[in-house]
Amino acid sequence: xxxxxxxxxxxxxxxxxxxxxxxxxxxxxxxxxxxxxxxxxxxxxxxxxxxxxxxxxxxxxxxxxxxxxxxxxxxxxxxxxxxxxxxxxxxxxxxxxxxxxxxxxxxxxxxxxxxxxxxxxxxxxxxxxxxxxxxxxxxxxxxxxxxxxxxxxxxxxxxxxxxxxxxxxxxxxxxxxxxxxxxxxxxxxxxxxxxxxxxxxxxxxxxxxxxxxxxxxxxxxxxxxxxxxxxxxxxxxxxxxxxxxxxxxxxxxxxxxxxxxxxxxxxx
Length: 268
What we know:
By secondary structure, the chain is of the alpha/beta class.
């Protein structure tokens, strides 16, 4: 029986050690080129492990999945369009809050994700494979919970979207609702492309909710939601912080609490 195939994406901030991990995992079995249509370098490696042919993709280093840079666009598009079986998120202990911001956004995409705990390459791959094999990953994680007004708007828009598309959107409805409230231009384009008629109605509803939130907070909802993500992350860091003169943190504990072991391949 031929080996089964899994695609594993490596995500992380710039200079987080992600590419070193990619090199350690793949050795010389790499292909280097550019991502389609852009000059951002694409690295892909192929190895065999535990009966699987693994394609390991080194995503561009990013601080978020909000598409302000071409690297962020490339990374998010890969997660949305290619839907890797597992994402390995590299957490940089020296910049924990910044690393966890990216982790929370991957979590909102509902990707199968494992965090690198410096346990060794073999253990990291085995953990990723076990997660891909699992049909019922442990529900021990948290997603960002926004303030009551934003959660209400997200919920209303999600329900409206599902009623208009009969659940046929290729993306996770809650994630789309969050992005529309943030006025994400690329997500709006994708929505219209996926459901032209319903998409226009959904965009009108999103715009009305954005206005309501702007009036409520006297601030652009995107800024409010970004601040609330960082508030969520600060709470996680406080929870895992060890009271010493150096204020050390338990990175493994923070990994478990934030984004890992979601319910399926990205945004399915």
